[in-house]
Amino acid sequence: MKLIDYSVCQLSELLKSRKISSRELTEAYLEQIEKREGEVGAFITLCANEARKKADQIDKMRASGEKLTPLAGIPMGLKDNICTKNLKTTCASKFLEDFVPPYDATVTEKLSDSILLGKLNMDEFAMGSTTETSALKKTCNPRNINYVPGGSSGGSAAAVAAQEAAFTLGTDTGGSIRQPAAFCGVVGMKPTYGSVSRYGAVAFASSFDQIGPITRNVRDSAAVLSAIAGQDPRDSTSVNKDYSDIGAQIGKEIKGMRIGLLREFFEKGAAEEIRTSVLSAAKKLESLGAEIVDLSMPSLDYALPTYYVISASEASSNLAKFDGIGFGTRAKQYEDIYDLYCRSRSEGFGAEVKRRIMLGTFALSAGYYDAYYKKALCVRALIINEFKTVFEKCDVILSPTTPTTAYKIGEKCADPIAMYMGDIYTIPVNIAGLPAISIPCGCSASGLPIATQLIGKAFAESTLYRVAAALEDELGDYDTILMKAGIKA
Amino acid sequence: MSTAYEMVIGLEVHVELKTKTKIFCSCSTEFGAEPNTQCCPICLGYPGTLPVLNAKVVDYAIKAGLATNCTIAKFSKQDRKNYFYPDLPKAYQISQYDLPLCIGGWLDIETKNGKKRIRITRIHIEEDAGKLIHRQEGDISETLFDANRCGVSLIEIVSEPDLRSAEEVVAYLKKLRSTLLYTGVSDCKMNEGSMRCDVNLSVRKVGEEAFGTRTEMKNLNSFQFIARAIEYEFRRQVEELESGGKIVQETRRFDEVSGKTFSMRTKEDADDYRYFPDPDLCPIIISDEKIAALRAEIPMLPEERKERYIKSYGLTPYDAEMITAELKFADFFEKTAEKTKYPKLVANMLISEIFSYQLEEDEPIKIGAEHLASIAEMLGSGRINSNTAKKLLSEIWETGADPHKLVKERNLEQISDRDVLLAYVRKAIADNPKSIADYFNGKTSALKAIVGKVMAATGGKANPIIVNELIDIEIKELR
What is the mean pLDDT of residues A404-413? Predict the structure, then answer.
């Protein structure tokens, strides 16, 4: 077995027992990057030398018996909207191409023992579902390079799928971790809103954004989330709780657990092969002793518009600071201060970002506020309440992660609405701030990954991981799924 | 013409809270630091950073609310006010929109026309913006940015349009200032910008109910300028209406040199700040216990002291209001009043003499309470006259000398001996036949000249009451 084939949990043990060094592990990953990066294009910034230096440092610390975190010495990557001190953080935008933060995000600090290989591509400011809105880089799906990796954390998912990193972090505002994880055949976790500090993650829509791990399997996911979760005095929306039991229930049987299937999630939208695959995953859970409960949540029909109104409203304000004065590249020519703003922003932002800024500005404007923003807040409250009711009747909700498998590159660029529709299963979760995990559950006829999403109650990550691990133990990871299907990876 | 009109004024007063650190980060708020030395990624709005509310800001704002008779909201939230301007790095200001921390208070003011209650609409917390410094060097004009003020904690106190004159405005501001000073939540230093005032002014014909179109004058930072700006703007609006014109809703700048106001921007109506709740911050929930604890920390306020001065020292409401306006004068008055049987004389000297020195906000009172009390004592007992008291005060202010010693050394004691004074009076009458003739021709004030002569002849030491009596008697005999 090659070094890069080990899971995060295995690597943690191997490093701890000093059977392998972080330096050799890092070299193995750099070699893999050398091999795959040309066609995958996951990284915006690579920092090979810094990674080597850091690996040596960790090895030295370990040799001298210093106390290290479980993820110490493990090579990883961060989505390029997560701030890294003295290392460019571009948000995949031309506007921030040269932005070097003078501080680390809280999650960056928490992973300071791990080896940062580089910063990963994404949709510009995390707005998009294919990573094609990146102004700086094209990323392809490592499972089939004619397809998109999904988005917005496309680089993060592609890097894990291509084994260019042992794990990565992404951010999820409306599905941006789970959808690319689904498209790339890896595991993506969106934690409960408030469980991971948002400090240092460049905000898209503050009341939805959460940082989470993308990994090759469920156990790794729990290990990484355990490392990054926790209340942070720098983020007022982070919640004070005991996060130490996140992976504690993995391996427990799921007998008697109630798995909810929401009618609305299966009646329309999903491609047939996805429906079949996800329902068969439900059957697997039933065979493990879980109880399948059919449920309904009528407000789900309003989730998409609710999300787009609120998230765009917040984004229009969050992105206003990129004005060419303090942040963002300033236009070369301008008449006066307002012209400077207009030109800098017109030149700096891509089309999708502009679309959402305009949408949000409109929704918050006098005369429209009540009809859009305020109404959307009401619907949000409704959705949160309906989730509460549903969770009285089940422990976990099971759904598809996406209605289709990965799109062909360029396929959805011209049709934003169609692209927005791709998030119908992931968006309600962000609206309610719930945790949800996407794991591979099948493959399409053409060999593209299919994934199922498990949604939990707020702060019930341990339950979610318990069910997800049980299902993964049955199905295997995506390579196993392919093998079982008789398709060669 | 202008008597037919009245002005209607509402104020928005921004007060910097005395917190050691800024509202959302731990940067220092000390005044006068080198530009851009008190800022960090958070107050500079760096991408990814988040605000965390300084708990002291809420405490201070609640105290300000309690001191101004407001109701404290159990649930309030913070909102973003979105607009582009180079002094605002995030391109939004975190403020409070529809659910402010304090609502519905009032302050009572005292002017020459008596007591009046000015209602306070609300008090909310917000962050300050940075400072832009425009500079012209040769052909190049540039704008520099100082971020030290970014994120400094403010409260905005919004009054109802209850004010009707510059005098009332100044009285209200002084009352507000003294109340906040006493409460200890702000320095209220207008010269350092820790208290700034926006004046919303409209005019209407006396007796009309409806408000006229208002203009806003921003960031006025001295009582004197505020009064001048109001007087000018009132005349301007009345003249505009009288000449058939219309008032445009706009922001106007007061020019301190010319004493005039100038239009800054007229698109006030077009401004749309797109307020919405800041998703980075949680609602502010305040318990009854918290409010009670903060209320207990508020010391005796000017209004209470004023009542006490009226009762215990026999001051008039107006005098008591004047003295309690500033904590340092109130404290000084109390200290002095305790040492003499003549507190009213102390109040008179404070108001008519010391106030006329127009001390700066942080300038000390350069006479000891002991000394002023001695002067009051001598004045009250008739040992010196008021003329001498005035002179003593101004001399001691400069030299710090002992008043008793001065009176003794210079022989400044009042001459109350009727026989001595009668000689002076007779001489003055004999020397000034014209004044006497004027008096008999009906010009009663002509006798003042005689008093003046007696005072001059006695080196200002004559007892004016006795001099007046004697003159009356002598004149009657002349008749």
Answer: 91
Check B48 against A234: CB less than 8 A apart. no
User: Residues A25, A31, A37, CA angle at the centre, nearest 5°?
Assistant: 125
B207 has a chain A CB within 8 A of its CB: no
Q: Residue A249 corresponds to which amino acid?
A: Q
User: Within an 8 Å CB–CB cutoff, is residue B292 touching chain A?
Assistant: no
Beta-sheet pairing, A396-400 with B75-76: unpaired
User: Contact, B382 vs B463, CB < 8 A?
Assistant: yes
Q: A76: distance to nearest CA of chain B, Å?
A: 21
Write out chain A residues lying below 8 Å of B279, CB-based.
205-207, 237, 314
| Closest chain A residue to the Cα of B284, Cα to Cα | A236
ipTM over 0.85? The verdict is yes
What does the pLDDT look like over A215-241, one tens digit per residue? 999 999 999 999 999 999 999 999 999
- Is B46 an interface residue toward A (CB < 8 Å)? yes
Q: Enumerate the domain spans of chain A.
A: 3-255+459-484
Question: What is the CATH T-level fold of the domain A3-255+459-484, as seen in this structure?
Answer: Amidase signature (AS) enzymes (3.90.1300)
Of residues B48, B89, B282, nearest to A101 (C-beta): B48
**pLDDT value of position B1:** 46
Query: Which of A279, A295, A262, A275 has the alpha carbon at shortest distance from A428?
Result: A262
Cα A138 from Cα A44, distance rounded (Å): 9
Q: For all residues of chain B together, what is the average pLDDT?
A: 92
What integer is the mean pLDDT of A429-434?
Answer: 98
Query: Of the candidates B48, B82, B90, which has its C-beta nearest A199's C-beta?
Result: B48
Fold for the domain defined by B418-478 = Arc Repressor Mutant, subunit A (1.10.10)
Q: What is the pTM of this model?
A: 0.89
Kindly state the tokens that stand for A45.
Answer: 């910034």
From A323, A327, A361, residue closest to B47, measured CB to CB: A327
From chain A, the residues in CB contact with B44 under 8 A are: 326
pLDDT of residue A70: 97
Is the pLDDT at B136 greater than 90? The verdict is no
pLDDT tens per residue, range B330-374: 999 999 999 999 999 999 999 999 998 888 777 889 999 999 999
Q: Look up residue B149 and give its DSSP letter.
A: G
Q: Tell me whether B51 touches chain A (CB under 8 Å).
A: yes
In tens, the pLDDT along B293-304 reads: 999 999 989 999
Of residues B15, B155, B22, the one with CA closest to residue B95: B155
B241/B221 Cα distance (integer angstroms): 28
Contact B49 A200 (CB under 8 A): yes
Residues of A involved in catalysis: 79, 152, 176
Question: Are the C-beta atoms of residues B202 and B237 closer than 8 Å to each other?
Answer: yes
Q: Are B67 and B180 in contact (CB under 8 A)?
A: yes
Residue B268 has pLDDT above 50, yes or no: no
- CB-based contact (8 Å) between A233 and chain B? yes
Domain residue spans of chain B: 2-292, 307-410, 418-478
> Which of residues 237 through 276 in chain B touch A, CB cutoff 8 A?
272, 274-276
Q: Which of B48, B49, B272 sits opposite A366 (nearest CB)?
A: B272
Would the CB atoms of B274 and A207 count as touching at under 8 Å?
Answer: no
